[in-house]
Amino acid sequence: MIYRIAEKFKSVQGEGVYAGTPMAFLRFTGCSVGKSVCAACDTDFEEMVTWRGGGEFTSGLLLDWVGHYQHICLTGGEPLDQSLDPLILAATDLGKVLHLETSGTKQLGYFFGDITNPKWVCVSPKPGFIEDVVMAADEVKVIMPGLGVLKHGIPIASVGRGAWPTLQDALRWANAGKTVFIQPRNGRSEIDQTNLKLCQDIVAEHPTLRLSVQLHKVLRVQ
Fold it and tell me: Quick one: DSSP state of residue 52?
């Protein structure tokens, strides 16, 4: 199996429960949701950028690059658009902990539905998210005010493709026992202070939710 990787890098996780944890990041090309929906997306996943570690790789080559790092983050784009099983099995054999970052619009498959495997699933629901996938996640990340282009407060990019998750969705998932983060919609490399204040106010009013601020943008690292 050959994987198309937009970029790969080693850094600290900036979001969620594992914030501050050193990880090897593999960013897969392509996204079945796409930037026509996520118009304010802050990541580059459309092509393989060789000078940022992108290219076509086998599982073996990717794991050789991962080296002694224990945690591997599979991100995108949408990692589940590619067949992850060979990479997952090879990484598991080496005792690695796999972290999947997904839009929640695609079924997780066997591995990520098997609680005996060392893994962590973060769902950041996008229009068209599948409720069962969100409920299977270890953590849920709701972006405020969402990544769509707004018109009169409505994310018009999601019309006909389902809706962006709302605060009511976040509270419902938290009340069901999920770990739910509210995260500001930030710029490519900087924290949006207006959106951060919005998220702080939400968490202050609804303490079943948590705040995620994209630590890597605070630290100015990738």
Answer: G
pTM: 0.90
Tokens of 221: 């690292």
CATH architecture of the region 3-219 = Alpha-Beta Barrel (3.20)
Sign of CA dihedral 194, 196, 198, 201: negative
Q: What is the pLDDT of residues 124-169, one digit of tens each?
A: 999 889 999 999 999 999 999 877 655 555 555 444 456 889 899 9
Q: DSSP assignment of 74-91, as one string?
A: EESS-GGGS--HHHHHHH
Map out the domains of the chain as residue ranges: 3-219
* Cα 84 off chain centre by: 16
Please tell me the number of Cα atoms within 13 Å of 65 on its side-chain side.
20
Q: Which string of DSSP letters, residue by residue, matches 98-131?
A: EEEEE-SSS--HHHHH-TTS-EEEEE---TT--H
